[in-house]
């Protein structure tokens, strides 16, 4: 928040994503006084560039693209599922693990196939959020949650790899078996966004 803004003013941030699942997860996490703008809200119709080989690089690239082309403060995230037995894969390629079609069903099928017969099914979800302030500043925030990969899909909620990811801090259910509220208490994205909001609430960046 800039020093010229009132403490009662509404802070508008664009979330640089076209993923409605992510938007619906993050909106409830924003405290009173914050308004989340989607890419549609700012008139952004094109697909954002995502050509880096790290989560940090992709998050920065997307946030900076929106700032430069649309002149608004925004944040972007990139999330990866890192599986120990697969040497950290699919990682930064999680969304397109089974191919450029980016189908979650195909990605989960490939993951289960590659883990077949492996005793170590430990994994972690990791999210990196990059915030590009209107003044050109860039900041990063991260969140992660440890767990393991179930042997079969369970649950109908969530998205992506949620039907097979069982968080260590939970009660044995997959993310897809939890309500959105339950997932948000411990999820990697919620933790990264919480760090972002703490930063903003401390008046550490000009929007």
UniProtKB/TrEMBL annotation:
Among SUPFAM superfamilies, the record links this protein to: ITPase-like
Task: Give me the segments passing through the membrane.
Answer: none
The record, for NCBIfam families, names: RdgB/HAM1 family non-canonical purine NTP pyrophosphatase (TIGR00042)
Give the organism the record lists.
Hymenobacter humi
What EC number(s) has UniProt assigned to this enzyme? Answer: 3.6.1.66
Q: Which top EC class is given? A: hydrolase
Q: What is this protein called?
A: dITP/XTP pyrophosphatase
Q: Which domain of life is it from?
A: Bacteria
Which residues hold substrate? Answer: 17-22, 79, 159-162, 183, 188-189
What does the organism's lineage look like at the top? Answer: Bacteria, Pseudomonadati, Bacteroidota, Cytophagia, Cytophagales
Q: Which family, according to the similarity comment?
A: Belongs to the HAM1 NTPase family.
């Amino acid at each position: 928040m800039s020093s010229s803004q009132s403490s009662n003013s509404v802070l508008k941030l664009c979330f640089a994503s076209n993923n409605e699942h992510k938007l619906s997860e993050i909106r409830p996490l924003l405290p009173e006084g914050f308004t989340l703008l989607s890419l549609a809200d700012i008139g952004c119709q094109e697909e954002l560039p995502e050509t880096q080989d790290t989560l940090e690089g992709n998050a920065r690239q997307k946030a900076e693209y929106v700032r430069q082309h649309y002149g608004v403060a925004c944040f972007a995230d990139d999330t990866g599922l890192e599986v120990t037995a697969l040497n950290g894969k699919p990682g930064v390629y999680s969304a397109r693990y089974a191919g450029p079609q980016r189908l979650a069903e195909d990605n989960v099928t490939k993951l289960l196939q590659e883990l077949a017969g492996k005793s170590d099914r430990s994994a972690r979800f990791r999210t990196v959020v990059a915030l590009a302030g209107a003044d050109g500043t860039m900041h990063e925030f991260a969140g992660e949650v440890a767990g393991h990969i179930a042997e079969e899909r369970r649950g109908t909620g969530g998205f992506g790899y949620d039907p097979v990811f069982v968080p260590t801090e939970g009660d044995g259910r997959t993310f897809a078996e939890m309500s959105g509220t339950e997932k948000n208490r411990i999820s990697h994205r919620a933790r990264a966004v919480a760090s972002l909001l703490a930063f903003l609430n401390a008046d550490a960046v000009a929007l």
